[in-house]
Amino acid sequence: MNKLLFGLSFIGLTAGCVVAYLSGITQPPLPPAFSPATNPYPRGIYANGILESEQTSGANINVYPEVPGTVTQILVSEGQEVKKGTVLLRVGDSVQRATTEQLQAQAQAAFTLLNELKAQPRKENLDVAEAQVVAAEAALKTAQDTLEKQQAAFDLDPKSISKDALDSAQNAVLTEKANLDVARKQRDLTKAGAWIYDINNQEKQYNALTKSYLSASALLSKYSLLAPKDGRVLAINTAVGDFISAQGGYDTYTQGMTPTLVLGSSEDQLHVRCYVDEILVPRLPAPSRMKAQMSVRGSNVKVPLEYVRMQPIVSPKIELSDQRLERVDVRVLPVIFRVEKAKQLNLYPGQLVDVYISE
How many C-beta atoms lie closer than 10 Å to residue 260's C-beta? Predict the structure, then answer.
């Protein structure tokens, strides 16, 4: 029994020594996936940076519709190169199109009526007026002949014609003279054509309707969202069936309003916007001597930068992790550099980088 206990104790002691030995072995650390950003200059200024499209001012181009409506068609895709004036998407325009067509028809009708007024007198109307004058002259001639006959008979024998019949004949002549005068004036009115005031009034109506039609057409064109300049589609923040407005579209994930589309420059043309802390601003060199280097996070890639411009205003720093909401008390000076992108390097607008600027 004692031998068994002694054997078990020896085995337990041996196992404990083995475990203690194995536990004491230190494993060599794994090599880092990439080296952290380091200052390549004897005296350098560190700044956070964010990649953006190459623009003469601003960052990317945020495209918003000028009229609200439901997206009916998206004609581009993300990453596509577009030219200025390319139709990016269309918004439902059935009501505005009907209004435009109605105003166009009204303007065309007003123009037709204006031409009708200017074309007066119509030959057929003038022929009728001339015929009425001839008829009135003939009626007057008949009345005058009748009066002359009755007057001659009365002069020969007053008893042959009653005084009442003679008076009626005289009145008939006066009536036919008046009718002839009316017929001649009606002919002259027809020959004169439309009244100049009617023409001027119709011209103003035509011009007003034409301008209304052009205004409606201009508004109709706003239902097609066009590319404001040459560029590359970076993001499409809407889908067919979404409702968009001048504030953009509702983003499901951020629960905020975002630009309908975002355009940028070619993928080989990038800027990096650096935010230099205000306490480091006095150490910045002159633009002619400014050199900088960018470190791409998650890699050992370091890219030299070319100075472009500086925004000459110190403003509150925007936390790059949430530009829409977060702000801090630090104030920074934006400095923009150009990135010479290598073919094997994956860089995208919005990417965060580390930048060192030589003093």
Answer: 26
Per-residue pLDDT tens digits for 311-341: 888 888 766 555 555 555 688 999 999 987 6
Helices (DSSP H) in the chain: which residue ranges? 2-23, 94-119, 123-156, 163-192, 196-221
CATH of the domain spanning 44-54+265-358: 2.40.30.170
pLDDT at 328: 58
- pLDDT tens string 104-136: 999 999 999 999 999 888 888 888 989 998 999
Say how far apart CA 255 and CA 33 lie, in whole Å.
35
Q: Are 258 and 248 in contact (CB under 8 A)?
A: yes
Q: Which amino acid is at 155?
A: D
Query: What is the average pLDDT across 61-74?
Result: 93
Tokens at 213, concatenated: 């039609």
Kindly write down the DSSP assignment for every residue of 225-294, as one continuous string: EE-SSSEEEEEE---TT-EEBTTBEE-TTT-SEE-SEEEE--TTEEEEEEEEETTTGGGPPPGGG--EEE
Phi, psi for 337 (deg, rounded to 5): -120, 160
Per-residue pLDDT, 107: 96
Q: Residue type for 90, please?
A: R
- 33 band by pLDDT with thresholds 50, 70 and 90: low
d(CA 154, CA 27): 156
DSSP string, 221-234: HTTEEE-SSSEEEE
Average model confidence (pLDDT) for the chain?
A: 86
At 194 the pLDDT is 87
- Reading phi first (left if > 0) and then psi (alpha if -120 to 50, else beta), residue 275 is in beta
Looking only at the bridges linking them, the beta strands covering 327-340 and 302-310 are antiparallel
Domain definitions of the chain by residue range: 44-54+265-358, 67-88+224-258, 101-218
CATH 2.30.280 fits 67-88+224-258, yes or no: no
Residues whose CB falls within 8 Å of the CB of residue 202, separated by 6 or more in sequence, listed in order: 110, 113, 114, 117
